[in-house]
Amino acid sequence: MPRVVPDQRSKFENEEFFRKLSRECEAFVATGTNLSLQFFPTTLQGEQRQLPTRDYVDFDRETGKVYLKAPMILNGVCVIWKGWIDLQRLDGMGCLEYDDEKAQQEDLLAQQAFEEVRRRVRDFEDRDRLHCEDVEHLKTTQNPVHVYTYTE
């Protein structure tokens, strides 16, 4: 199952869900969307991958606010949530942007996975064909077994 849809940009630009969330708004929850932002999620072993840079979490840009950026795959489309949160009121604004660079990487990974599956299917079909040919060859080259019975 691929992580991304075949034409991510088209889905991002044409679906109402993405059009709504790509406009900067005060609260995603008003649209019925809740996001759990993970800047650098832990690995399967529970190890932290890396600490987010100022590009992802910036407390210095404006006093009293934190500016955030969180890349993700949402409904099969590579996007980045960008926004800010007021540290006193705990409200803010944000929007989704299409992540063209990540989309290209994911498209390449999906294409490689597809090619690998095609290669495996071809290998399986070749082995199956050879096996069937071997069985047919054995049937035609072996002498039939004759059973003789002795009676007195």
TrEMBL record:
Lineage of source species: Eukaryota, Metazoa, Chordata, Craniata, Vertebrata
Keywords annotated in UniProt: Nucleus
Keyword Glycosyltransferase attached: no
Annotated compartments: Nucleus
Gene Ontology biological process terms from the UniProt entry: regulation of transcription by RNA polymerase II
Family the entry assigns: Belongs to the CBF-beta family.
Statement: the UniProt record of this protein carries the keyword Nucleus: yes
GO cellular component, one term: core-binding factor complex
MF GO annotations: sequence-specific DNA binding; transcription coactivator activity
Protein name according to UniProt: Core-binding factor subunit beta
First-listed, main subcellular location of the protein, grouped into a coarse class: nucleus
Record InterPro entries: CBF_beta, CBF_bsu_sf
